[in-house]
Design a protein that fits this description.
It is built from 13 helices and nine strands. The chain has about 475 residues and is α/β, with parallel strands linked by helices.
């Protein structure tokens, strides 16, 4: 079932409302007939049955009230809309069904304890035969339209009316059983009705409770597959869904290239949202949260540096000049930490101590970390270079690296504004054959840097990481 448009939703509410009003009129007609016959004949049993029919008609009123509330548009207090009021009304009808089943069960218990079977007079039999076709029509029509419209209220109300039909048939069967000496027959039929009510009502209550408690509506793996099919999406995770089948609200997280411009990342998120709504029925709202993905680090040293920089970012710090030593299977790290120069030593030390504590907690092999506080003025923290300027510069840098090292060598570029005006800092990877000696690889990196500085004088700080091609592929 596709998610209804506002116009389609209004049409849905009008259609269900008309059906409920029509069914309520038929139920009130049945009630009026029973009251009239009871008043004319003075039959207490018939009048009691009329009150019972009036109570049964209350399910139509519950449905109308729930539908009226559900038709209200979203507002500040209900940003997801009011559709669950229809679900609450359906739950109420399920509760009335259980009440009807309990009344039948009480009659069965009274009979088993020695009570007299209900007396079916020619008058009450005539009323059953008169009202039975009306109830059969109500069940058929209301159930049919409920399935066509996808209305829980109509289908639940049809099931409730079906119980009345079974009770009427049980009375006829009981009368026939008594006439042929099978007085227990109506008890067996009544127990069957109780079982039907218990199963039908429990199904309604279970389904409505799932909606009201925000059970997942859509398989998250299906959503992940749709999101990953969008170009630029690396991963899709943390999928959540809630609501009715025709009113699903969904959110998910996607990971994209961390070097991607914000505008491009937003366009990808919008495309994920569009595809989710187009391919999954009932989704009226999809919220896509964008997260920067992480390139696979070329080595354990880079992985350690990436983790330390991420921890520093979380505290508004910058780190550089990392020096890592391996001792007894653990890391000893020296790092320069950039911190706002306007802060006092006490405040700065507290922030950096927190950074060190987080690093020790999240990096199990970290034996020791020693930080050097380096004050920075506002605006000193490097900012990435994005947009058309970055793309043109990237292509030029990759071309220079490929000229020295071979096609496809230059990759994983990070460009950022230097602390000096109109200057650029560059970090990049360059693939060279795996059988190259380490001194030769160092010389290749120097040749790349020299060529870059010759053609791009705006470069300030250049770091080139050489690696074998298989490391890049992994």
């Amino acid at each position: 079932m596709s998610a209804p448009t506002p116009q389609g939703l209004a049409h849905y509410h009008r259609s269900v409302k008309r059906i409920l009003i029509g069914i309520m009129i038929l139920n009130l007609l049945v009630t009026a007939i029973k009251f009239a016959v009871g008043a004319l004949t003075g039959s207490i049993a018939v009048i009691a049955d009329a009150f019972n029919a009036l109570v049964d008609a209350s399910s139509n009123v519950i449905g109308l009230l729930g539908l009226r509330a559900a038709s209200d548009p979203p507002d500040p207090d209900h940003p997801y809309g009011h559709r669950k009021y229809e679900t609450i009304a359906t739950l109420g009808i399920g509760g009335l069904m259980l009440l009807a089943g309990w009344e039948v069960l009480e009659d069965v218990i009274a009979r088993l304890e020695g009570g007299q079977p209900p007396t079916v007079t020619p008058l009450s039999l005539a009323l059953i035969l008169l009202t039975l076709p009306i109830n059969v029509f109500v069940v058929w029509y209301e159930g049919k339209r409920g399935r066509e419209l996808g209305s829980d209220v109509l289908q639940a109300d049809a099931t409730s009316t079906r119980i009345n039909i079974f009770v009427s048939l049980a009375a006829i069967i009981g009368l026939l059983g008594s006439s042929i000496g099978l007085a227990w027959l109506d008890i067996v039929v009544a127990l069957g009705i109780v079982a039907y009510v218990a199963v039908a009502a429990s199904r309604i209550i279970r389904e409505t409770s799932d909606i009201l408690t925000d059970s997942a509506v859509i398989d998250p793996h299906v959503v992940e597959d749709i999101a990953r099919a969008v170009p630029g999406v690396w991963f899709a995770t943390k999928v959540r869904s809630r609501g009715r089948e025709d009113d699903v609200h969904l959110d998910l997280h996607i990971k994209v290239d961390p070097a991607m411009a914000t505008e491009q990342a937003h366009a990808i998120a919008s495309e994920v949202e569009r595809r989710v709504k187009d391919q999954l029925s009932g989704v009226v709202d999809a919220v896509v949260h964008i997260e920067p993905g992480q390139q696979a680090p070329a080595s354990e040293w880079e992985a350690l540096a990436v983790r330390l920089r991420a921890l520093a970012d979380g505290l508004g710090l910058g780190v550089h000049n990392l020096h890592v030593d391996l001792l007894d299977g653990g890391y000893i790290v020296d790092a320069d930490v950039e911190i706002d120069a306007s802060l006092s030593l006490e405040t700065s030390h507290r922030i950096v101590t927190e950074f060190e504590s987080r690093a020790r907690a999240e990096i199990p092999r970290l034996l020791e970390i020693v930080t050097h506080l380096e004050p920075t003025e506002p605006g000193d923290h490097p900012k990435p270079i994005e947009g058309a300027e970055a793309e043109a510069l990237r292509r030029q840098i990759v071309h220079i690296a490929d000229q020295v090292c071979g096609p496809g060598a230059g990759h994983h570029l990070i460009l950022r504004h230097s602390h000096l005006p109109n200057r650029i800092d560059l970090s990049m990877h360059c693939a060279v054959p795996g059988n190259t000696s380490l001194p030769e690889a160092h010389l290749i990196a120097e040749r790349v840097e020299q060529q870059l500085r010759a053609e791009l004088p705006q470069l300030e700080h250049v770091t080139i990481h050489v690696e074998p091609p298989e490391e890049r592929e992994g």
